[in-house]
Specification:
0% of the residues lie in helices and 39% in strands. It is built from no helices and 11 strands. It is globular.
Length: 132
């Protein structure tokens, strides 16, 4: 089980999905590489997420070791300098990341960072929801 979030400081934690009460002994790994709002997605042995500041991550799901950490080419900062609220989704072998004001980014769902496309939305409103 993976838990991401926190305010004002973010943290990510991988836990064994068993037990009750004090689960501190169930922690597999923890990291400050995390996100405030967006949740991660798992594909195979890798964990993918975009943080609220527009950094795209890939990590080893078993260890938390960061494979890549790449900034998406965002122009605006979004609300309170947080341009991303939506969680990434996995569609076949593609990751879809929706930003608040700059449309969607499509990434290859592999441990090698590859930005496939950027689809801008002409609407000037904020987009905060995760696609389904």
């Amino acid at each position: 089980m993976f838990c991401f979030g926190g305010f004002p400081h973010t943290k990510s934690v991988a836990l064994k999905a068993e037990g009750k009460g004090d689960l501190s002994k169930n922690i597999i790994w923890s990291s400050t590489d995390s996100s405030y709002v967006p949740s991660p997605v798992v594909k195979g042995e890798h964990l993918y997420w975009i943080n609220d500041r527009g950094l795209a991550y890939c990590a080893e799901a078993a260890t938390g070791k960061i494979i890549y950490k790449e900034r998406l080419p965002l122009k605006s900062s979004g609300g309170a300098a947080r341009p991303v609220y939506a969680s990434m989704i996995l569609v076949h072998d593609k990751l879809i990341a929706v930003t608040r004001q700059e449309g969607t980014f499509v990434l290859d769902a592999s441990p090698n960072f590859k930005l496939i496309s950027h689809n801008k939305i002409s609407d000037e409103g904020d987009f905060n929801a995760s696609p389904a």
